[in-house]
Amino acid sequence: MGKHNHNNRHRYRGERRFSPEETRLWELYQAKRTQLIQRFGSRCCVCNRTNDKLEFHHMRHHEEYGKYGKSAPLWRRYQALGEIEKYPNDFVLLCYGCHQTITWLRELVEEERFRLHAIVTATF
Ligand SMILES: [Zn+2]
User: What's the gap in Å between 57 CA and the centre of ligand 1?
Assistant: First the structure.
């Protein structure tokens, strides 16, 4: 058991070899992602940046696709692109910075958001 785990760990630490199937999936994933980014205008919908790493933000989750994190396996991330394709109105394209900001703002309670907004709008 211990030996098996050690071998697995060693395999992942070493050079990564993709199987032909994994390579094919990676190409499909990249092609579909690029196509979707273009469909969303290839820019962050908040700050208009085009050169940052762009990410899709879920505004609504759909039961049939479940939830997944950023570390989800490739096949899962490929499946997730299908959700964007099917429900484009429930997603926005954001740069990394704006995505971080939105995630952070979402975590604030309503009262904190209200106080922040009051300060922002009073500042000039
Ligand atoms: Zn942005």
Answer: 12
